[in-house]
Every structure is written in structure tokens, then in C-alpha cells.
From TrEMBL:
<dbReference type="Pfam" id="PF14338">
    <property type="entry name" value="Mrr_N"/>
</dbReference>
<dbReference type="InterPro" id="IPR052906">
    <property type="entry name" value="Type_IV_Methyl-Rstrct_Enzyme"/>
</dbReference>
<dbReference type="InterPro" id="IPR011856">
    <property type="entry name" value="tRNA_endonuc-like_dom_sf"/>
</dbReference>
<dbReference type="GO" id="GO:0004519">
    <property type="term" value="F:endonuclease activity"/>
</dbReference>
<dbReference type="Pfam" id="PF04471">
    <property type="entry name" value="Mrr_cat"/>
</dbReference>
<dbReference type="GO" id="GO:0016787">
    <property type="term" value="F:hydrolase activity"/>
</dbReference>
<feature type="domain" description="Restriction endonuclease type IV Mrr">
    <location>
        <begin position="155"/>
        <end position="274"/>
    </location>
</feature>
<feature type="domain" description="Restriction system protein Mrr-like N-terminal">
    <location>
        <begin position="6"/>
        <end position="88"/>
    </location>
</feature>
<dbReference type="InterPro" id="IPR025745">
    <property type="entry name" value="Mrr-like_N_dom"/>
</dbReference>
<keyword id="KW-0378">Hydrolase</keyword>
<keyword id="KW-0540">Nuclease</keyword>
<dbReference type="InterPro" id="IPR011335">
    <property type="entry name" value="Restrct_endonuc-II-like"/>
</dbReference>
<dbReference type="InterPro" id="IPR007560">
    <property type="entry name" value="Restrct_endonuc_IV_Mrr"/>
</dbReference>
<protein>
    <submittedName>
        <fullName>Restriction endonuclease</fullName>
        <ecNumber>3.1.21.-</ecNumber>
    </submittedName>
</protein>
<keyword id="KW-0255">Endonuclease</keyword>
Length: 298
């Protein structure tokens, strides 16, 4: 069974016909192209999922990140001009190092960004305790998901982010007994995008500002000062400023020295919370870990 990056070249070779392939048909064609045996196709992960499907999934994710393939619609794939050029430039095959050298792949999460960094799955330390290996694997998957979440949020209309962050805050327990969250965003929003109840009766309210910024667009002190001014304008003393990028140190220092309570949530923390509270993600697998019940043998 090839490792995940062993599927990079076969995927591009199948897609080189220029057709738009469904995910299912592409998987079958690639497996046939590689010549996987029936025994290899029957290999499963402990969760019961197909090992081959899992590995080609990682390959497609990396190719999409490098803009060597694209998804015209959900669950379909087509090769890009960059993908054709990559295939022609590396007749002996594309490995992980080559994939990560692609400018689009490196630009996916700029080094200057405070968002997460991610590497494709690598070998787990065999000396680690089994539970540590599981946790390390889950952490790597979540890092990859967090990167995709940020990319998708930045590609959406600003209104999408405003709705998403309000839904997240409700999932975190805000919104009162009726889970009230109201989007205010618009040309006359007064500097706030939403408002949400903090307590069950709605006696205290939290105002929200959500900024959909590119990774290299840092939110500075001036933007936070403007938000604090907007809070004062509505008689509020609590606010949450959320961005898909990052905050400057000046912005963080400013909120630590004002009377208003303002929480800053950058792209890294935003995606971490979205994963924790299942906003924009779905559970793929659930694993059960058991241990001997000592009481049973007493």
C-alpha cells in the first residue's frame, strides 16, 4: 500500500484527461491505475474505514491546497494548469517535499500568520504511550481541519463569518435562556456586527465585531479603539472582536489597559473553538478506548 503522498502522482495522472471526476469514481480509477490488489483494497483502519480511501483523501487535500486540483462543485475534482505543469515537471513522481515547495501550498498559511501550522501525517513515535499516539494523531488531523476552516471562512462573504461567530457563541453557552443572537452587520451597523445575551434574562449583552481578513492583514490598535468607541456608543462594557487573521501586540496591550472588557479571538483560537463546539465541522470517526475493569475481578 503506497503511503499517502504515493497517491499524488496517480491522482494527477488520472485527472490529466481533463474531465471532472466524482470523488467515488476518482478513487476507483486511481486504485485501478496504481494496481492495488483486492487484499490492499480490503485493508481497514481500526475505525473500520478503508486505508486506501483515507490515504487518497490526504493526497487530494494536499493537491487542492497546492491548487494543483480544484473542486468545481462538492465532491468533484478536476486538474488545473498548475497540476499539468507539475506532472510534466516531475515524471519520476511527486513526493511530500515537492508538494510543500509549491508556492500556493506555502501561501495557504503564510509564515507571518498567527494561525495554525500543519504538516501532512507522519510516522508516530512508536515509543510513545498508546493514548499519547492517539492524541497526537487527532491533534494532527485537527490542525489540518483548522487550516481548511480558515481558508473557507476567508473565501466566504463577510456576512457568513458574522453568522458563524454568533452561532459559535451560542454553542459556547451564550445567548441566554432563549439563545438569542442578533446580527447587526451592515453599512449602518455602528461599528458592531452582532449582539448576544450573556445571561438567561438578557440583562447583560455582549457586542461582537467579526473581521474577515487575509492571514497577513494584522488587526491593529486603531481598529480595537474604534470598536471600544462603538461599545461606548451603545452603552456597553463588554465585547468580543473576532478576526480570521491576527492581532498586533499593540492591540493586545490596549485591551489589557482599558476599563471595558474586550476579548480578542484570532484565527487560531477561532478555528480551535469551532472544532471544539462542532461549528462548520462534523464528526468523522469515534474511537472507544477500554481498560480492564478491576472491580469485575474483585
Amino acid at each position: 500500500m503506497p503511503v499517502w503522498y504515493g497517491f499524488l502522482t496517480p491522482v494527477l495522472e488520472v485527472l490529466a484527461d481533463g474531465a471532472t471526476w466524482s470523488k467515488r469514481d476518482l478513487h476507483i480509477a486511481v486504485f485501478d491505475h496504481i494496481g492495488l490488489t483486492p487484499e490492499q483494497l480490503e485493508e481497514t483502519l481500526p475505525s473500520g474505514k478503508s486505508r486506501a480511501d483515507n490515504r487518497i483523501g490526504w493526497a487530494l487535500s494536499g493537491l487542492n491546497r497546492a491548487e494543483l486540483v480544484r473542486r468545481p462543485v462538492r465532491a468533484t475534482f478536476v486538474i488545473t494548469d498548475a497540476g499539468r505543469q507539475m506532472l510534466a515537471a516531475h515524471p519520476n513522481g511527486i513526493n511530500e517535499k515537492i508538494l510543500k515547495s509549491v508556492p500556493a501550498y506555502k501561501a495557504y498559511v503564510p509564515a507571518a500568520s498567527a494561525s495554525v501550522t500543519e504538516d501532512a501525517p507522519q510516522e508516530i513515535d512508536s515509543d510513545a504511550e498508546p493514548l499519547e499516539q492517539i492524541e497526537a494523531g487527532v491533534a494532527r488531523v485537527h490542525k489540518s481541519v483548522a487550516i481548511d476552516l480558515l481558508k473557507r471562512l476567508r473565501d466566504q462573504h463577510p456576512e457568513f463569518l458574522e453568522h458563524a461567530v454568533l452561532k459559535l457563541l451560542v454553542a459556547m453557552g451564550y445567548g441566554g435562556a432563549e439563545q438569542r443572537a442578533t446580527r447587526i452587520g451592515g453599512t449602518n451597523d455602528g461599528g458592531v456586527d452582532g449582539v448576544i445575551d450573556q445571561d438567561p434574562l438578557g440583562l447583560e449583552r455582549i457586542y461582537v465585531q467579526a473581521k474577515r481578513y487575509a492571514a497577513d492583514n494584522t488587526v491593529g490598535r486603531e481598529a480595537i479603539q474604534a470598536f471600544v468607541g462603538a461599545l461606548h456608543g451603545v452603552g456597553a462594557a463588554r465585547g468580543v472582536f473576532i478576526t480570521t487573521s491576527q492581532f498586533s501586540q499593540g492591540a493586545r496591550d490596549y485591551v489589557n489597559n482599558i476599563s471595558a472588557r474586550v476579548i480578542l479571538i484570532d484565527g487560531q483560537r477561532l478555528t480551535s473553538l469551532m472544532i471544539k463546539y462542532h461549528i462548520g465541522v462534523q464528526v468523522r470517526d469515534t474511537f472507544t478506548v477500554v481498560e480492564v475493569d478491576e472491580d469485575y475481578f474483585e
